[in-house]
Design a protein that fits this description.
- This protein is an alpha+beta fold and 753 residues long.
- The protein folds into 5 domains: 98 residues, Beta-Lactamase (2-Layer Sandwich); 106 residues, PAS domain (Beta-Lactamase, 2-Layer Sandwich); 115 residues, Beta-Lactamase; 98 residues, Beta-Lactamase (2-Layer Sandwich), CATH 3.30.450; 150 residues, Histidine kinase-like ATPase, C-terminal domain (Heat Shock Protein 90, 2-Layer Sandwich), CATH 3.30.565.10.
- The chain has a 6-stranded antiparallel sheet. A 5-stranded antiparallel sheet has the order 8-7-11-10-9.
- Strand 25 and strand 26 form a beta hairpin.
- Helix 17 runs antiparallel to helix 18 and helix 19 packs parallel to helix 20.
- The protein is flat, with a radius of gyration of 56 Å.
């Protein structure tokens, strides 16, 4: 028999084989041989008993037709394959054959077995859970979610707790408020409402129920909502009967009251038992600190091991006397501790802080607290209390106090305005500089906001926004703003608490109006300097080009005239460059001086001649002589003369003379240079010697950098001299300076430090 006889069966996915009357396999399809791991040649002929267990073989042999038979096939590799067999008989080539069509159900069989195993486990777990539920020490019930709360399930303890003459034999499907009507409209019902509202368990303690004829009972318990799809479908109620504990506590309190009233009549033994109980309670409450017990009127004192440890002593090292305890206290605190003891014997309460000295010499801080006990005649018998090591707290407090002191010292000596603001944006601290700046006492600011101290709404809003940003980001912030025609810059820094939260903000404000003005002058100076440098350079270049182009045609006088003019511009350029270099050296602290002895009168004459040579419009008139030899830097002092004389000529265009006077008084050389020019206004006088400063009138009409007088003042100061001026607007100015005759130069230093 071949695949050609049954082509469709051969290609089928089912396991198909055909048996003859001897139960020999005479045909197998491809799926059969593949699954049972036989080759086509070895599968036929093959006795069915080789692949089917005996019980299944009997069934197949006796039946002519099978609708469904679960059996096991045994593969050539001895693997067990569960199959569902359909069988029918048919005639074929003169004989009756049986056709077995088997479907592989091995995976289904294993899955079914696993399900059965899980069912057994689940049944066992459910039984264990039910046992736990039934034998739990608390009464547990499952209630309907709606009033009057029908009982859906409960354990044995719950049944027992509700057992009274009116309780039905079965509580299932009974309403809780029908069984216990006194619970309705009580505080107990509110627990259900609260649990349903907050969607979590509500715990209650010592709930007193008085609905039983046998007397009140007290319950501790919890009502927990069971929520599915955001809806409360039931309540789990757990009750623990604490009646015995509550009654015991009441009896204990009553006994304690009775014992206090009858303490005088109690025996010594009963008093000792009471004392031991109180001591035990105190020890339990103070389990993390050391406990002491001092018998008043005797030297006997008892300490716990923890207290010995706090005092730096080994277990058993304490000698057990009041005097020994006093010896462990720091000498400076002994009187304080003994006064606290004396005060406690009067008031009944002991509380103090003191220092102790450990055996290793280290100092520790302790906090002491206790209570005095009295006998029937109101005489103190014992002082029982605790000691706690508070060294770390004291160290922290000391550091905080030192830090606050340093901050206040710095804040109160700063020129800058220092304020501190709380999260409500109110002032909580203002430095003295704030008080002086605004001419208002501290109370004017404290507990007020920016809006309440007179700032405009726009400015107060901006400052509030800055505070909000620092509170939110926890990072410092810098802002600029204007107020009352002045410019200010504020730095806002967060002050953190122990949990990294921002407790307050420190605000340091500086008046930067002068700085802005200086920056403005600097910018103007750079613009003017560029112009001042370009002007002589342009002239020098023009004269050079003229000479280059017309040198052969010019006479020697013409050439000489051009060279003289060119030299004047070169000298001017040289002075500008020298002034700029001197300014840089002054700012960096490298302004160099060369000390020598020279004739002061010669210096004056040469300086006048130098200026007179290119100023034909003014007569520079000298009066007085000094007749002395001066010690100093001749070149730098000549620079001062040239600067003052040049200014006198430049700023008196309508005048014809400049007066110079020199004299000697009290070992000092005095010099005055007077012009009859434009003068200096009152508002400009205080700025004359500042860098880059030029009056508005001068800026419009005259060239210059605004650094000549600044440099001259630095030179005079380095010679330990003084320089000043007087001026009347429209009438002229007189600049004077004086120099000590026999004094050495000051050391070079930065005038801004």
């Amino acid at each position: 028999m071949s695949s050609l006889d049954f082509p469709l069966a051969y290609r089928s996915r089912d396991l198909i084989c055909i048996l003859n009357t001897e139960n020999e396999i005479i045909f197998t399809n491809r799926a059969f041989t593949s699954k049972l791991k036989y080759s086509p040649s070895s599968a036929t002929p093959l006795l069915l008993s080789k692949i089917v267990l005996p019980q299944s073989l009997v069934t197949i042999s006796q039946k002519k037709k099978l609708a469904s038979l679960e059996a096991k096939y045994i593969s050539q590799a001895k693997d067990e394959i569960w199959v569902d067999i359909n069988m029918f008989s048919m005639p074929w080539k003169g004989q009756n054959v049986k056709v077995l069509i088997a479907r592989d159900i091995t995976a289904k069989k294993k899955y079914t077995q696993e399900i059965e195993t899980h069912k057994q486990y689940l049944k066992l777990a459910n039984q264990q859970l039910q046992d736990m539920f039934d034998h739990a020490p608390a009464g547990i019930a499952l209630l309907d979610s709606q009033r009057p709360y029908k009982i859906l399930s409960h354990n044995r303890v719950y049944q027992k707790m509700l057992d009274h003459p009116h309780t039905p034999l079965s509580l299932i499907d009974k309403n809780l408020f029908d069984i216990l009507p006194d619970l309705a409209n009580s505080r107990f019902e509110n627990y259900f409402t609260k649990a349903a509202t907050i969607r979590r368990g509500v715990t209650f303690y010592n709930f007193a129920f008085t609905g039983f004829d046998t007397g009140p009972v007290w319950w501790n318990g919890e009502i927990s909502p069971i929520v599915i799809n955001k809806k409360v479908i039931a309540f789990a109620l757990m009750l623990i009967d604490v009646s015995e504990e509550v009654l015991a506590q009441k009896r204990l309190r009553q006994e304690l009251i009775q014992r206090r009233h009858s303490e005088a009549r109690l025996s010594r033994k009963n008093r000792q038992l009471l004392d031991q109980k109180i001591k035990l309670n105190l020890t339990e409450q103070a389990s993390r600190v050391g406990v002491f017990d001092w018998t008043v009127g005797s030297a006997q004192t008892k300490w716990t091991r923890q207290l010995e440890k706090i005092y730096g002593l080994a277990p058993g090292q304490f000698k057990g006397t009041y005097e020994y305890w006093i010896s462990l206290i720091h000498p400076e605190d002994r009187a304080k501790a003994e006064n606290a003891i004396s005060h406690a014997l009067i008031t009944g309460l002991f509380e103090t802080e003191f220092r102790i000295i450990w055996p290793d010499g280290s100092i520790h801080w302790l906090y002491g607290r206790g209570k005095v006990f009295y006998n029937a005649t109101k005489q103190p018998t014992s002082l029982i209390g605790i000691n706690m090591d508070i060294t770390n707290r004291k160290v922290t407090e000391s550091r905080l106090a030192e830090s606050e002191q340093r901050f206040r010292l710095i804040a109160e000596t700063m020129v800058d305005l220092v304020t501190i603001h709380n999260p409500q944006k109110q002032y909580v601290y203002v430095s003295p500089s704030v008080v002086n700046h605004f001419h208002q006492p501290p109370q004017f600011f404290l507990s007020k906001t920016f809006y309440q101290v007179g700032f405009s709404v726009r400015l107060a809003t901006r400052l509030n926004q800055a505070l909000d940003r620092v509170f939110q980001t926890k990072k410092p912030l810098t802002i600029d703003f204007s107020y009352d025609n002045r410019y200010y810059q504020s730095i806002l820094a967060p002050e953190f608490g122990t949990r990294r939260q921002v407790n307050s903000i420190i605000m340091v404000t500086r008046d930067i109006s002068n700085l802005r003005e200086l920056e403005k002058r600097k910018d103007e100076f750079l613009s003017i300097a560029s112009h001042e440098l370009k002007t002589p350079l342009a002239s020098i270049k023009a004269y050079s080009q003229i000479l280059k182009q017309s040198y052969s045609t010019f006479s020697s006088d013409q050439i000489n005239s051009i060279l003289v003019k060119q030299n004047i511009h070169i000298d001017r350029l040289n002075r500008l460059i020298s002034d700029l270099l001197d300014l840089s050296r002054i700012q960096s602290g490298r302004f160099q001086f060369t000390e020598s002895v020279f004739d002061f009168d010669d210096l004056v004459k040469e300086s006048i001649e130098s200026i007179q040579s290119f100023s034909s419009s003014h007569a520079i008139i000298l009066s007085g002589t000094t007749g002395i030899k001066m010690k100093g830097d001749r070149h730098r002092l000549e620079q001062v003369f040239v600067n003052l004389l040049t200014n006198a000529v430049k700023y008196s265009p309508q005048a014809a003379r400049v007066l110079v006077n020199v004299s000697v008084t009290n070992s000092q050389v005095n010099v005055s240079i007077k012009d009859f020019g434009i003068g200096i206004g009152a508002s400009d006088k205080q700025h004359v010697f500042e860098r880059f400063y030029r009056t508005s009138q001068v800026e419009k009409q005259y060239s210059g950098l605004g650094i000549g007088l600044f440099i001259s003042r630095q030179i005079i100061l380095r010679h330990r001299g003084k320089i000043s001026f007087t001026s009347t607007l429209g009438k002229g100015s007189t600049f004077t300076f004086s120099l000590p005759v026999n004094s050495s130069l000051q050391h070079d230093k930065n005038p801004y430090l």
